[in-house]
Give the backbone structure.
Amino acid sequence: MLLIQNGTIITMDKKNFKNGCVLVADGKIKQVAERIDTAGCRVIDAKGGWVLPGLIEAHCHIGISEEKMGTEGNDCNEMTSPVTPYLKALDAINPLDAAFDNAVRAGITSVMAGPGSSNVVGGQFVFLKTHGTVVDDMIVKEPAAMKVAFGENPKTNYGGQNTMPSTRMSTASMLREEILAAKQYRTKKQSALQKDELFEIDYQKECWLPVLEGKIPLKAHVHRADDIATAIRIAKEHDLSMTLDHCTEGHLIASLVKESGFPAIVGPSIASRNKIEVRFMDFKTAGILHKAGVKVAITTDHPVSLIQYLPICAGLAAREGLGCEEALRAITINAAQICGVSDRVGMLKTGMDADIAIFDGNPMEIFTKTLYTIIDGEVVYRFDDRASE
């Protein structure tokens, strides 16, 4: 067993501890309390540092857009067809991408990773841990979401090829057509199964069933306010769950986003305003949406901005109106809930995965160091100059 003691325990649950302990056994959190007997335990002395659930990146392209690898390591967008729901990020993520090590060193223990936004439908995201050498062993949930995209990216990538979509109208139309075809496929399959008839599985449509059954959300790339509204409109038409990723102009239509009931994954607010649709990008967006009643997570959109700066992005959002407590939630429990994995990660609570980050202070402050990163009860990073076991 592993015991963390003498830490400021931020549980993201109902109770925190100014000087508390976390007990880990068999890869799970066994107990969180003010005092726990050290007998039979390997002890980590947090020395007053902050002990949090491992941080969570709710939208990124880690391992699928590899650092240092150029074209050879870029498998993020299949730009030969605008509708590719059957593609799995799982098949392209390289866990030896250097960015995974950067994530671990920043206290980030899990990520939602998947294809980019060039296509109307890009494929399936996977939620995974950040430590490992074989991606299959790192999976928490797969598939975890279905990527769809609105706005500049699909129309720019395909309009230049003189094919659809070249307008926002065609992007929306193609998505509606694909969802309708998936629903028709589901109906035919259900009818055949009820009649005990032979049914031929269509690989290109079968992937939609978890979305139609409400098991995973659409993961909508949206920046501009009108694109956010279109995404909401289409999801409501087909009674689908959805996350609003980037949601750059969400602060301009906060009441609509709140009314939709869909959560927002905001960012990368630290990146350049390199497109027209991100001209109103600002760290204030997260705070405005939160105050309107929207559940918010923060994203770096790695590699658009680097994943190790996730806690700094949360800190900037905190400064611009989100507040410290909610900013920490945006990179822990809120992110877990939005990604559909809050039964395993995002809190320090009995029975949860033992994914824990220990810092020498507030992780959202620039001078703070990560002392330990623990994933599934295993110490995978240790800052030797400050921490001791």
Observations:
- The CA atoms of residues 287 and 323 lie 7 Å apart.
- The first strand starts at residue 2 and ends at 9.
- The chain is about 25% helix and 25% strand.
- The chain has a mean pLDDT of 96.
